[in-house]
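README, section 4: Worked example with a bound small molecule

Sections 1 through 3 covered apo chains. Here we extend the same pipeline to holo records, where the ligand is supplied as SMILES alongside the sequence. The molecule in this example is 2-acetamido-2-deoxy-beta-D-glucopyranose. Nothing else about the input changes; the structure line simply encodes the ligand pose together with the chain.
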Amino acid sequence: MGRLLALTLAYLAHLLAAAIGSERQQHHVQHGRCSYTFILPEVQHCQPLKDFQVTNTLQRDSPPEAEPEASQSRPGKAQRERPSLQERKLDHLESAMENNTQWLQKLENFIQENVRSGMEEMKRTAVHTQTAAMLEMGTNLLSQSAEQTRKLTDVETQVLNQTSRLEIQLLEYSLFTNRLEKHILLQTQEISRLSDKNSFLEQRLLALEARYGRELQGLQSEKQQLQELLERQSGLVSQLQGELSSSTLNSSSLQRQQAVLTDTVQQLLAMVNHCNEISNAPKEELLSFRDCAEILRSGVTESGIYSIRLTNSTQTVKVFCDMKTRGGGWTVLQHRRNGSVNFHRGWRDYKMGFGEPSGEHWLGNDIIHTLTSSQEYSLHVQLKDREGNEAFSNYDRFHIDGEDNNYSLHAEGFSGTAGRTSSLTHTGTPFSTKDRDNDRCTCKCSQLASGGWWFEACGPSNLNGIYYPSSSSVVRYNGIKWYYWKGPNLMTTMTTMMVRPANF
Ligand SMILES: *[C@@H]1O[C@H](CO)[C@@H](O)[C@H](O)[C@H]1NC(C)=O
Ligand SMILES: *[C@@H]1O[C@H](CO)[C@@H](O)[C@H](O)[C@H]1NC(C)=O
Ligand SMILES: *[C@@H]1O[C@H](CO)[C@@H](O)[C@H](O)[C@H]1NC(C)=O
Ligand SMILES: *[C@@H]1O[C@H](CO)[C@@H](O)[C@H](O)[C@H]1NC(C)=O
Ligand SMILES: *[C@@H]1O[C@H](CO)[C@@H](O)[C@H](O)[C@H]1NC(C)=O
Ligand SMILES: CC(=O)N[C@H]1CO[C@H](CO)[C@@H](O)[C@@H]1O
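The generated complex, written as structure tokens:
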């Protein structure tokens, strides 16, 4: 920037000099490190007219007023004083412009020269510095090469060291190879010894082969004998095969016979079925039997499940018939044996019956009523305790009322082994369940003792109590009870209540 300013100043000075002409005086300007020399025009000996024209030119070309302020004010006045000289002024200006451009070119040339000379200078200095650097590098290289030689000598010594070591190793190896040679010699001796032995063994082998060859011949003769035997055997086998084929023929004839037999058997089976149908026919009639006693009288002697038809009813009921106990013909009303069925139930269950006749069950109060009121029945109560002791209670006359009288109990004519006194309550005791309390206790015996029964208050028996599988010293009021046989705490394994006609 400063440089540009200086150049501009120089240019202005030149312009002034060109415009004013003749008189020149040198001026020095110091700008930073650079000094500039200007030759400025002297105005005293010039005609005022010419001066003004020149300075006018200067005023036009110069940049903003700041720099040549002093020279501007005067030309401004001159212009105003000489406005008629315009044309001449224009010519002058043109030539001045030309001179200016020439001067500028000169300046440019000068600058270029200067630059070139500066470049040369720079080149020269660069060469100097480069040579200095080269020298330095040279010295460096020298020192480095000295270092390298030192290193080389080191390496050399190392290599020497290595070679000496290798020589030592070589010596060792040669020793080792010597040892190996000795060893190999020994081995070869051993091998020759072994080959001697081998030849000896070969001789023995030959001897053995000769012996075995003899034996082999013997074996071959045996083999021939065996082959002959085999041939004979195969002959036998073929003979047997012939027999077998004939026997298969016989067997096919047998099969035919068997087919004939199966036909006859089937015919027989058909006949048997027919017979069964004939024999089944009376069974249909069983449905009209009203209890197990009638079934027994019809000739059936197997205990099991049968259907009976209740009097004045179309209903058939499946019951378990005990055809063995004391002459059989018993229709089972109640049975317990393993506690698999829950007996703590409501009125409706006891009315309709529950469980299966094949296992634990209660036949149902309606059925019991209908059955026992159709004719006179006797009741048999059979008990078995945990030790396997059996006992029974028998009642010559037994029936229960209908639901309208709460299935009241009527049992008379007691006898039996399960106690000297009847464990059933007296005649007229109504039936109670957990949901229908008809007992004569302020308590609810059915809930206290569990199950449905003819409770009084609460009475000496309840065969529908809880089935306790194991005996216990604890007195249980809700277990199965037949007081006059075993006290309040009977642990049964089985109970059965069953009826048959009193006149059986
Ligand atoms: C060779 O070098 C080993 C270790 O590098 C050194 O212990 C031994 O003394 C050297 N031997 C000679 C002969 O320089
Ligand atoms: C085959 O049956 C015939 C008679 O039918 C009998 O003579 C012969 O011995 C039988 N053969 C065998 C191998 O049983
Ligand atoms: C009880 O006995 C019945 C009839 O024999 C049988 O089906 C059932 O599995 C038994 N239940 C138990 C718990 O033993
Ligand atoms: C069966 O019905 C007849 C006539 O209707 C009657 O006389 C008899 O008493 C009834 N029997 C029973 C057990 O209800
Ligand atoms: C039957 O029992 C019910 C209550 O469970 C009672 O109201 C009714 O009077 C009883 N019937 C007879 C005839 O005692
Ligand atoms: C106006 C001015 O200064 N013109 C001059 C230009 O240069 C020639 C010769 O170089 C002079 O003759 C002019 O007077």
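What to look for in the output: The longest strand covers residues 390-400. Confidence is low (pLDDT under 50) at residues 50-79, 281-286.

Section 5 describes how to batch many such records.
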